[in-house]
Design brief:
Strand content: under 5%
Structural class: mainly alpha
Number of strands: 0
Length: 183
């Protein structure tokens, strides 16, 4: 069961990397086209600001959850590495995992409430529910919570296999662990 959960989140991680790439390209293209239309032809896309904002918000929260997996968030070095004992390092790692867990739980609870609350509001240009803007919060929170648990309980998450796959060198079987299963 744990292996399936790890495989699911590894596939989700890969999907989120590709989604973030798509969102960044789409945001740049929409903004570029709107600038060309506005300054070159005195017109523009009335929906471009809302869609760019939606892509930006989603990109930020996807990147936040990916940053937890890759340990890319800002860290403060309060103790010089040469003075850090293994025990202190482990305690600080546990504290970091607990902080990630609390942040993830807060994002899940309040993100869910915010999304539900704003689903009845409509964005003026696109006529989309405003809750779409915040719908990524609970999804990102679930990934952060999983990564916090994986870090706290030392799950074998196959991060190297995920990185190899994203660089074009690995396979999905390596990512999901299907290569390890013998009939």
């Amino acid at each position: 069961m744990k292996q399936r959960i790890v495989a699911f989140f590894n596939l989700l991680h890969i999907g989120m990397v590709y989604l973030s790439k798509f969102m960044m390209v789409a945001m740049v293209l929409i903004t570029f086209v709107n600038v060309v239309l506005r300054y070159g032809f005195d017109s523009g896309l009335i929906w471009s600001e809302e869609v760019s904002l939606l892509l930006d918000v989603w990109f930020i929260f996807v990147a936040m959850s990916l940053g937890v997996k890759q340990d890319l968030h800002i860290n403060l070095s309060l103790i010089a590495e040469h003075r850090m004992t293994e025990r202190i390092d482990r305690v600080l790692t546990i504290i970091r995992g607990l902080i990630y867990l609390v942040i993830g739980l807060a994002m899940l609870v309040y993100g869910w409430k915010l999304t539900a609350l704003t689903m009845s509001s409509i964005m003026p240009a696109t006529k989309w529910p405003a809750g779409l803007l915040y719908g990524i919060l609970p999804i990102s929170a679930i990934v952060i919570i999983y990564e916090a648990f994986a870090d706290l309980f030392h799950f074998e998450t196959r991060d190297v296999a995920v990185d190899r796959y994203l660089s074009g060198e690995g396979t999905l079987k390596d990512v999901t662990g299907a290569a390890d299963v013998r009939p």
